[in-house]
Structures are given as C-alpha cells and as structure tokens.
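Box 3.1 A note on notation
Throughout this textbook, protein chains are presented in two layers. The first layer is the amino acid sequence; the second is a token string describing backbone geometry. Keep the layers aligned when reading.
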Amino acid sequence: MNIREKSLQPKWFRAAIAIVPVVAASLLGQWATYPNLAPWYAGLVKPSFNPPNWIFAPVWTILYLLMAYALWRILKVSGNDADRRAALILFFVQLALNALWSWLFFGLNNPLAGLLNIVPQLLLILATIDRFRRLDRLAALCLAPLAAWVAFASLLNFEIWRLNG
C-alpha cells in the first residue's frame, strides 16, 4: 500500500463508521414502525398537537443525516482520545436507544415502554451534545435539532400513553 492509499483509507473508514450505524438504526426503527401504523397507531387517541404521519419520514431523514455528519466530524477530530471515546460512547448508546424506541413503542404496541426509553434517550442526547461541543462545535450544533425533536416526541409519547392508558 502506498502513502496515498494509506491517507485515503481512514476517510472511507470514518465515513463508513459514521453512515452505517445511523442507517442501521433508521432501518431497524422503520421495521418496527411501518407494520404497526395502520393496525395499531391509527387507532390510538392522540393529542391535538400530534403531527400528521407524513411529517415523520422527512424529519427523521434530516435528523439521521445530521447525526451521521456530526459523528463523521467527531471521528476526524484529533486530540484527546479519552474525550472523543466518551463522546462516541454517548452517541452510540443514544443511537441504540433511538432504534430500540420504535420496537418498544410500535413493535410491542406499548407507549409506556416507549416513554421509559425516550426520557433517558433525551438525556443521553443532551450529554452527547455537551461532549461533542468540547470537541467540535458544529458537530454539537448538528445534534440540537435531534434534541428538540426528541423532546417534542417525549411529550407526544407521554400524552399518547396518558390518553390511552
């Protein structure tokens, strides 16, 4: 392998590490969500501020793109490996909870299980933003819309649980 090939490899590796887990989380969530929209979710009582179903796909697409970009930026940061490792652990744990939420809420048809997931998920997103901010301000800013959306989703999840409990 020549020097040019060595310098290209980390870019592809970082891109794959940034994209593949985020796409996997998205697909895992979709597999639990879509089969349960019509038979189960459509029959739930929802609060007046519940968005129309069509809004979720474009919002989540943008959020997942921002997450992958933020992760890519953190992966290429040089410096304190311990800080970066802590930030990456937080990111991947919140991403796993993100995918798991769909299986708890939609897959199990259980708003309470979703609520028990989404509250710690939101706290982990906020902790991830804080850690990312220490390493790369733009990466942290890319996660701000995720925090806002998950905060809204937490309220929505709570209200659906309350109204249907």
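The CA atoms of residues 87 and 131 lie 5 Å apart. The mean pLDDT is 93.
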